[in-house]
Amino acid sequence: MELQYTSGAYRKQLDDYAMRGSMSGKGNCYDSAVLERFYGSLKYEWLANVIHLTREGIINDVNKYIRYYNGTRLHATLDYQTPNEYENSQINVCN
User: Fold this and answer.
1) CB-based contact 41:69 (threshold 8 Å)
2) What per-residue confidence (pLDDT) applies to 59?
3) What H or E segment, with its residue span, contains residue 20?
């Protein structure tokens, strides 16, 4: 079943799982820009044209992409470092 993000049915499903939705104020397109960028990369770089036969298969594949995204994939906005490298460089600056 596909649910619209702001629908009553979707909010009820969140409640059923003791979860809380995250929405910004109306018209704030930058609220989830980083996460939207990640999901776009996951969808178009990693999952395009891949068929997963089991839930476990897609979970393993997404976890593999997260490790790749954070530990191997270079990001132009991070001066062509991985997120892990960038985070570690910031920790060293702060110490």
Assistant:
1) yes
2) 93
3) none
Where do the H-state alpha helices sit in 1-95? 8-16, 33-41, 55-71, 83-94
Instruction: Decide if pLDDT at 17 tops 80.
Output: yes
Burial 3-23 (b: 16+ CB within 10 A, else e): eeeeeeeeeeeeeeeeeeeee
C-alpha span between 3 and 77 (Å, rounded): 33
Query: What's the start-to-end Cα distance of the chain, in Å?
Result: 49
Whether the pTM exceeds 0.70: the reply is no
What does the alpha-carbon distance between residue 33 and residue 21 come to, in Å, rounded to a whole number? 16
Contact between residue 46 and residue 65 where contact means Cβ atoms under 8 Å apart: yes
